[in-house]
Amino acid sequence: MSTFKDHFSSASDRYAAYRPDYPAALFAWLAGLCTERDTAWDCATGSGQAALGLAPHFRHVVATDASAEQIRHIQSHPAIDYRVAPAEASGLADRSIDLVTVAQAAHWFDLPRFYAEVMRVLKPGGLIALWGYGRMVLPGKMDAPFQRFYAETVGPYWPPERALIDDAYRSLDFPFAEIEAPAFHIEVEWTLPRLMDYLSTWSAVKRFQATQEHNPLPALMAELQPGWGNPETARKLQWPLFLRVGRR
């Protein structure tokens, strides 16, 4: 069994409510690369955003997560089979999967064991796609205090695996025939309180709060509000996605 580092179950309801969705164009592009569209496996599904994005394109989606608490908060869908299972031991049949996806989670895995599992379950010619997103860039003068918050205020509280996100998975071992991906990004229109809700799901924020015994977000909100204006004004925010896509 893998050593599962669970940074998310303690706030799985907030994670499900406040994490952004991935762009529909990403799933359409991935599905278009697949020879067959029978079954996709969304590994470390978390609150299920990627599984829901896959569902229109595949007959069946299996979505697994090592956290039973995460699975408990997921929105049900008739095409998605949610299961509790570690990344390295999915319980799926040999050569049964057309596409494996991992959204914002591969940096937590025992990668050699996970890749062995991927090779076992993928059909010949099947695909694997790992992706993630780092820190959004806020508009105008708001980005400087946001950068300080990310790197300095809560920076020491990020788990060491976060460095792989900051590196956009470039240094991640990836033993597959790699396919160059087009540029994709997440785009939302959020109010300032909605942004704070999202930031409350960061593992570093939760660890800061547990250690320092106070919430760092109100001070950040006060710093951002002059540049934001009316906190209830929705602003367009973006994160660029980074991808590693390959074929078995």
List the main descriptive attributes of the protein structure presented here.
alpha/beta; 10 helices; 8 strands
Q: Could you explain how this protein is built, in words?
A:
- With 248 residues, the chain is an alpha/beta fold.
- The protein has one domain (9-247): Vaccinia Virus protein VP39 (Rossmann fold, 3-Layer(aba) Sandwich), CATH 3.40.50.
- It is built from 10 helices and 8 strands.
- The protein has helices spanning 12-18, 24-33, 49-54, 68-72, 111-121, 143-153, 162-166, 192-199, 203-212, 217-228, and strands at residues 39-43, 60-65, 80-84, 97-103, 122-133, 177-179, 185-190, 235-247.
- Strands 1, 2, 3, 4, 5, 6, 7 and 8 form an 8-stranded mixed beta sheet that branches.
- Helix 5 links the parallel strand 4 and strand 5 (122-133).
- Helix 8 runs antiparallel to helix 10.
- The longest helix has 12 residues, at 217-228.
- It is elongated and about 55 Å long.
- The two termini are 24 Å apart.
- The relative contact order is 0.17.
- The model has no long low-confidence stretch (mean pLDDT 92).
